[in-house]
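Marked as duplicate of an earlier ticket. Keeping the data here for the record.
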Amino acid sequence: MTDPLDNAVWHALTGPQHDVAQRNASAARYEPDVAPFAALPDEPSAAAWDDLRALVGPGNGAVLFRAEVDAPDGWEVLWRGIGFQMVATTPPPGAARDGAGVTPLGHADVDDMTDLVARTRPGPFLPRTITLGTYLGVRLDGKLVAMAGERMRLDGFTEVSAVCVHEAYRGRGYAARLVGELVARVCARRETAFLHVVGDNAPAIALYEKLGFVVRRTIEAAGVRAPG
């Protein structure tokens, strides 16, 4: 690997997000109530895998999220999933940047955010995920019906994540408005926005393409269990 986006978790945890990392030499992971991901260097050695085993504990699991996951003998692969990594190559269209109806979300909103994530399942959102960056939402009559936010951060890049809309409120442009506002903020910091999407989620991919994202590469997620 030569591009940090191929191994974004590692470059986030050893870079701008080191303050929410647990580290053991050549292995790292987010604090367990922040995000579920662990990471190894771009070219992990046998010693790095040993470091990860010591970090998570023998017989325990880890979630790796990188270009490829090639676990050595003794490690059990529990599951695998393939998705696309997309990068914003242009600023979002003006219509997606008006920010109308968008409100910042904070710690007081975490219960509502967790409920929405459980209902829509955009990906993991844990009690302290909100500390990773800006989260925005749309409320109607006090009810949180849509949200999106910033998760991984590495030098020059910020990931847009947790994009979800309550099923009763889809088709109103909320996802586009939230993602557009987040991308505009990332661009204002002279960073590049990126995101991850399940490979068969055609509606989401089409939306992101309209907002200026292009597919950069496939990314693999895998749950692995350390030798016991």
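See parent ticket for discussion. The chain has two domains: 4-83+220-225, 86-217.
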